[in-house]
Design goal:
3-methyladenine DNA Glycosylase, Chain A; 5 helices; disordered N terminus; single chain; DNA-binding
DNA sequence: AGCACGATTAACT
DNA sequence: GTTAATCGTGCTC
């Protein structure tokens, strides 16, 4: 009995991971990575089911000097992940109940990351509906804690290398987003963070994302 | 050991 | 616009 032939590619787009973004994508200035993540897909392969959404809102957090960034406290058990290599998930807990998903940027030693703040759900809609069905569809994943709830992301995924070929969470290449679709402004929810950090234009989002991305098939 | 606060959300008035 | 929910983290005593 001969071995079956290797699959040259996955014929099923639901299982395709060939478009996983490489580590070099994340090893660049954090605001650039944040903007270029718009229009890509955040994918979670959860027990064989593919859950995903189009990334439509991000924020850049830029190291110890950035007083809005957790790394302002230096290297602690929580922030250690941000001091590691780019392309790794930094998932943290806040307000006693919410998980927020970030991706580490820049070379090891520079504690910077992009917070993913919103997605337009694309795949795994049945499961997302189970988790978010108490809310109208437009609100299923239009916030940083809503998207982690939608995709089933939590503490288990902190420090996960998104660039590893077998990682269950990754970013897949998506569509090219025209500059005219993108609004840039100050980050939100920063409370008493002082200037100039409070006003840095490090938030990026696609205007009318649901209409523009909702019909994409990926 | 104790404390104040948080890169939020949903349900109020 | 206001507020409760709920607990890990980092800082002070």
């Amino acid at each position: 009995m001969i071995s079956p032939p290797c699959q040259p590619f996955s014929p099923d787009p639901i299982l395709d991971t060939a478009s996983r973004l490489p580590r070099s994508f994340y090893n660049r200035p954090t605001p650039v990575v944040a903007q270029e993540l718009l229009g890509t897909r955040l994918v979670h392969m959860e027990q064989g089911v593919r859950l995903s959404g189009w990334i439509c809102e991000t924020e850049a957090y830029c190291g110890e000097e950035d007083l809005a960034c957790h790394a302002k406290a230096g290297r602690t058990p929580r922030t250690a992940v941000m001091y590691g290599p780019p392309g790794v998930a930094y998932v943290y807990f806040t307000y006693g109940m919410h998980w927020l998903f970030n991706i580490v940027t820049r070379p090891a030693g520079l504690p910077e990351a992009v917070l993913v703040r919103a997605i337009v759900p694309a795949e795994g809609l049945e499961i997302i509906a189970q988790r978010r069905g108490s809310q109208p569809r437009k609100r299923w994943a239009d916030g940083p804690a809503k998207l982690t709830q939608s995709l089933g992301i939590d503490r288990r995924h902190n420090n996960l290398d998104l660039c590893a070929s077998d990682a269950e969470i990754f970013i897949a290449a998506g569509i090219s987003v025209p500059d005219e679709w993108v609004t840039i402004g100050p980050r939100v929810g920063l409370g008493t963070t002082p200037e100039p950090w409070l006003s840095k234009p490090w938030r990026f989002f696609i205007e009318d994302a649901e209409a523009r991305l909702g019909g994409q098939t990926g």
